[in-house]
Amino acid sequence: xxxxxxxxxxxxxxxxxxxxxxxxxxxxxxxxxxxxxxxxxxxxxxxxxxxxxxxxxxxxxxxxxxxxxxxxxxxxxxxxxxxxxxxxxxxxxxxxxxxxxxxxxxxxxxxxxxxxxxxxxxxxxxxxxxxxxxxxxxxxxxxxxxxxxxxxxxxxxxxxxxxxxxxxxxxxxxxxxxxxxxxxxxxxxxxxxxxxxxxxxxxxxxxxxxxxxxxxxxxxxxxxxxxxxxxxxxxxxxxxxxxxxxxxxxxxxxxxxxxxxxxxxxxxxxxxxxxxxxxxxxxxxxxxxxxxxxxxxxxxxxxxxxxxxxxxxxxxxxxxxxxxxxxxxxxxxxxxxxxxxxxxxxxxxxxxxxxxxxxxxxxxxxxxxxxxxxxxxxxxxxxxxxxxxxxxxxxxxxxxxxxxxxxxxxxxxxxxxxxxxxxxxxxxxxxxxxxxxxxxxxxxxxxxxxxxxxxxxxxx
Length: 460
Description:
Distance between the termini: 54 Å
Number of helices: 19
Radius of gyration: 31 Å
Strand order of the largest sheet: 1-2
Strand content: under 5%
CATH class of the largest domain: Mainly Alpha
Low-confidence stretches: none
Helix content: 55-70%
CATH superfamily of the largest domain: Fumarase/aspartase (Central domain)
CATH architecture of the largest domain: Up-down Bundle
Structural class: mainly alpha
Number of strands: 6
CATH topology of the largest domain: Fumarase C, Chain A, domain 2
């Protein structure tokens, strides 16, 4: 058993079962690099402010740099059974490296402010990585939109055929969703980018430390203003988890579309054999498992968010050990979402779009009912009257089992004198239908090309 950082007041060794239960080293070892880098900055500050001799500061820095090299090379032996947490582990490994000078590192510092520093540094890195992967997925959708910019398909409301759109328009809609996710995380980054070290246990230090110098060394934009808040705040974790939960919801919705489009009934897309799986019982099956797993992962991220919200809701100020449980959901959410973004991009690049199926689906005459209605509105009918006429034409077609395009001028005149076979054939043309859309942000080719140009510029 290694020496504890807090043992002086206690008569007994810690119960092994209690130590195992309270230990966080099995997961907070992910923070090792941030703990070392934060300690290097802290050691430099202690020497610069003459709180410890400069020679000791230099020895600390050299020892920590050595631990950093060993960490990157895989030679740093962080044995889980020995330590309560990553802070204790690094402290004792440093002492093994440089001797008694290591005992001076924890001057003007507590594990309370140390852990918040480590987690904030981790979060800054995690946000940047997730943002990068969101952008990569956006590039994937942009690639698809450019490649399929003129392909038409039905849109869906209530999972029923609605109107004719360009597939590229829907792919660009996914990009808008993802852009909002980026903006939320970028905004969250500002509140993460606050340096808490120097708040110590919760009230600050009587020693003449320079927190702004440490913040500068570590690349923080701001230093926390209130030491009590600094060690007890976990809002930034909740905010990241909230952003990741919304992002995972978007990924789930995107995956759902591709699951539906992969079905035999739709047949719009087919995944690569190396990405889909089969059935152990039904030889005919080719299942879109990656999309389903991404859809399912959304529930995990929601659980991560709610676990931290629930943990924090009743905690008095300042630090409480409950907060140890903030890291598992944070790490899980970051890693799950980051992986899901990467896998979704990989699977989508390999997906084949069945343009023939899309073209056939675009010929479903019912999806042009609104086109007929809006044509009549443009020729003097009220919206209510035009809507009813278009509905009656659809009903007549279904009752008589007769395509609208096959209706004679006389049949069409029974509904409206403004209609004839030539006009109807024009209104039921998929390409002409999408290009009749005039409103800004609509599905017309001109608008889609403008959106593609906008995204090409934005994603450079």
